[in-house]
Amino acid sequence: MKKIFSLIVMLLLILNCSEDKDDNLSLVNMSNVSFSFTHDWDGTLINSSNLQTEIVTNEHGEEISMTRIRYLISRFELVNDNGDSYLFDGYKFTDLEDETTYNFTPTNNSIPIGNYTLRFIWGFNEADNVDGAYLDLNSASWNWPAMLGGGYHFLQFDGMYNVDTTAPSPFNYHNGTARVSDGVFEQNFALIQLSTPITITNNANIEVKMNISEFFKNPNTWDLNVLDTPLMPNYDAQKMMQENVLSVFSIGSITQ
Amino acid sequence: MKLLDKHIIVALAFLATACGKDDDTTGYVNQPTQAPLDIPQIFSDNILNPVIPSDNPQTIEGIALGKKLFFDPILSANNTQACASCHRPQNAFTDIPRFSIGIDGIPGVRNSMPLFNLAWNYDELFFWDGREFSLEHQALEPVTNPIEMHNTWEVVVQRLQEHPEYPSMFNSAFGNGSITKEKATKAIAQFERTLISANSKFDRYLLGLAELTPAEENGLNVFMDENRGDCFHCHGNPNNPLWTDNQFHNNGLDATFDDLGLGEVTGDPADNGKFRSPSLRNLAYTAPYMHDGRFSTLDEVINHYSEGLQDSPTIDPLMKKVDEGGVQLTDQDKADLKAFLLSLSDPSFINNPDFQN
Fold first, then answer.
1. Which residue among A126, A222, A232, B112 is least packed, with the fewest CB closer than 10 Å?
2. Interface touch A172/B319, C-beta < 8 Å
3. Across the interface, do B317 and A160 touch by the CB < 8 Å criterion?
């Protein structure tokens, strides 16, 4: 009897310290989703190991080397066949030099099983792009100058072009709010809608692929000899970037 | 009944302790008093919290011990040099010579780095070349560096143990037990983390407590303008008041490298000639400039970026117009940029009595 009593106390102890597993028992058809981003240049995988060593050729024909690629996306949203939308909180700031930033698991990542398509915002939309509002992005010096409309960079892509010549030159392909004229600014985020169907049957990891070469390709063939740096205050360059980013992303493999 | 009581007591005692945090109180006569960093508003409003290792929390006793060690030449082989010899409070914790002179009269090869806001170096890579992770590890090196303090930690620990004050100070800070180099550098790191600079004129401007002159205002615009200075990509901005990214860049100082910088640490040729961006705070007190102290004035620094850039295979693409030598600032923009940069200096930091010997 006495031992039984002690065992009961010990059992209570174990239960006391264990995680509650029954919270989602009623949600048997729910899945948790996460995202993994991979990056390539027309099929050649680019990661922290080869970012600075890979020599690639852009659509216009210049050989380039890459030094730094960082980008911001936000408002991940999965939309099912009925048009129901599941909007995930948070934003994803990726630095290709830091592979721990390649993955993104939203806090509220539970959705019903079903068929979906993915959409997200390139950068921040107008409501989210509040100057200085995000301490982690400020800490990464990700800010977009107030004189250009403030808020944050969407992309910082730095490298050298014409590296096969005796006179390589730097480029700074930076994207953010577009300045129309002094004090007049135009939102420059993009809605990325990926039509590839995603069937969620279980907890799933969705690969999103970024083809870096597309920044220079479609619909605007980018001539770095003309547009290298500075591009941040260049309205036309900013709008061309907004157009070109639409074909950069695609859906890869779904692991579940 | 007694046996039942015993079972209950044992089980309940286990219950009470099983979920609790382990607090190792062994060896302390009195627990050290927690002394969390006083985070300036300009930081808490804008950037992430400082990095404090979980195994080295800030305490009053640890900071006091660290401060005493920092200013004590006992760390050097011949008892002539302290950390503060090359990291002087009046120079924002750097020194005046291009290369600091060690105890044997031999100069080093790099300029002494200023010390402030170190807990906000989020990657925790220290030295110009980032070769040490964490302040605690960084503080180990100068003691044994043959051209700095040229000592051994065995000798230092022996001296500290035989000292009339240190043993009790170590006990108060870290509990009873032997003095170790790890405890010593933990204490130094605690003191160094208190070296916070956040009260420049520009800080007060951001808080609405000061106004910029027209020159300082234009200087800020030069700093933030990709068409002109474009300084902000590496050196922070009004939303990042550290005024550094703490990252590694080749800023076009040389066409070839005598000092490989980060490349020496990583072994990767792509890192050759890269050094950590220093903060632009307190430039009024930290001359000479660059990792090798080659520039004795701010004018020389600005001229370098304006027309003195040297091309090399690893030059950062953020160094614009390399083929023209740089961004070609006008004399007016140079003067205004300098005025803005000087507004980032913080006299209350170098005069803070808590940081003096």
1. A126
2. no
3. yes
One fold for B41-196 and B201-350? yes
- The owner of tokens 């930290």 is B286
CB contact under 8 A, B239 and A132: yes
Contact B1/A at CB under 8 A: no
Task: Provide the residue ranges of all domains of chain B, joining segments of one domain with +.
Answer: 41-196, 201-350
Note whether B221 contacts A: Cβ–Cβ < 8 A: yes
Q: What is the pLDDT along chain A (256 residues), one digit of tens a residue?
A: 444 444 444 444 444 444 343 444 444 599 999 999 999 999 999 999 999 999 999 999 999 999 999 999 999 999 999 999 999 999 999 999 999 999 999 998 999 999 999 999 999 999 999 999 999 999 999 999 999 999 999 999 999 999 999 989 999 999 999 999 999 999 999 999 999 999 999 999 999 999 999 999 999 999 999 999 999 999 999 999 999 999 999 999 999 9
ipTM of predicted complex: 0.91
Q: How far is Cα B118 from Cα B242, in angstroms, rounded to an integer?
A: 10
The CATH number assigned to the domain with range B41-196 reads: 1.10.760.10
Q: Give the gap in angstroms from C-alpha A236 to the nearest C-alpha of chain B.
A: 16
Contacts 24+ apart (CB under 8 A), B318-325: B318/A158, B318/A170, B318/A172, B318/B230, B318/B233, B318/B234, B318/B249, B319/A170, B319/B250, B319/B251, B319/B252, B320/A170, B320/A172, B320/A229, B320/A230, B320/B230, B322/A169, B322/A170, B322/B252, B323/A167, B323/A169
Q: State whether B8 and A5 contact (CB < 8 Å).
A: yes
pTM of the model: 0.90
Q: How distant is the Cα of A253 from the closest Cα of chain B, in angstroms?
A: 32
Give the SS3 label for residue B10: helix
B201-350: what fold? Cytochrome Bc1 Complex; Chain D, domain 2 (1.10.760)
Of A97, A172, A94, A141, which Cα lies nearest the Cα of B279?
Answer: A141
